[in-house]
Amino acid sequence: MDCNKIEFGSGSVQLMVEARRSGGGDFGVSLRVSGNGSEKKVELLRFDCFKNSPHYHYDPTGKGETHNFDRTKSPNPLVWVMDQLQTKLPALIEHTGYSDIAHSVDPSVVGTELSKRLPDIVQLYDRALQELPPAE
Fold first, then answer.
1. Total-model pTM
2. 113 phi and psi, to 5 degrees?
3. What's the rounded Cα separation, in Å, for the pair 108 and 106?
4. CB 23 within 8 A of CB 5
5. Residue ranges of the chain with pLDDT lower than 70?
């Protein structure tokens, strides 16, 4: 197992959490949600829980809609993302335009899988914030 990446399936979607550095030098973890579209696997959502500029993307390789996290509502982006994935994942996927995938997601299965892996995800997030300093 790659110590900088956690991957798992949860019904009709696959999730990957990885430590990474952005092209602009920011760092943290990215949580990617993928599913099988009509012709190929597509990245539906990406949550970049970065130290300086956390943000998230709807359909990052297509629609490319990006939003910044509101730290006044949730100072820790990882906590906010875990809540969204466990409670609103079908609606988030629906917003990307992949209704067929959204309707096949079972939030209880996603919640169970995330709960099982939460300690490892938190550990990866904490390690990424400490060990991936911005490029000079």
1. 0.89
2. -65, -40
3. 6
4. no
5. 1-2, 38, 132-136
